[in-house]
Amino acid sequence: xxxxxxxxxxxxxxxxxxxxxxxxxxxxxxxxxxxxxxxxxxxxxxxxxxxxxxxxxxxxxxxxxxxxxxxxxxxxxxxxxxxxxxxxxxxxxxxxxxxxxxxxxxxxxxxxxxxxxxxxxxxx
Length: 124
What we know:
Layout: H1 2-10, H2 15-35, H3 42-68, H4 73-76, H5 79-91, H6 112-121
Helix pairs in contact: 1-2, 2-3, 2-6, 3-5, 5-6
């Protein structure tokens, strides 16, 4: 996520495509952080891991698309993935942080609205 955003700012590759790649990676990062805090629901944890494995495959396809100059996000991310992502996101309570709390007391939690905003930026 950070690398894509940094490269987008450098202007050496398509800023829009790298920005989209960064936003997509950000969504996966949120799910990953939240899933890492699941301790009492093995089935839900496995569902989150499966989504992230699917997400990694899409990320690989996006990277190939950037290299070939043919990255079209809406064609690379299936509606099924989006529906699963929204369902998973709706299952997380407020106990699940979407970041590592290095700010000691400051609110660093991302919520469903943050995921929705990133999806909007990707055109979903």
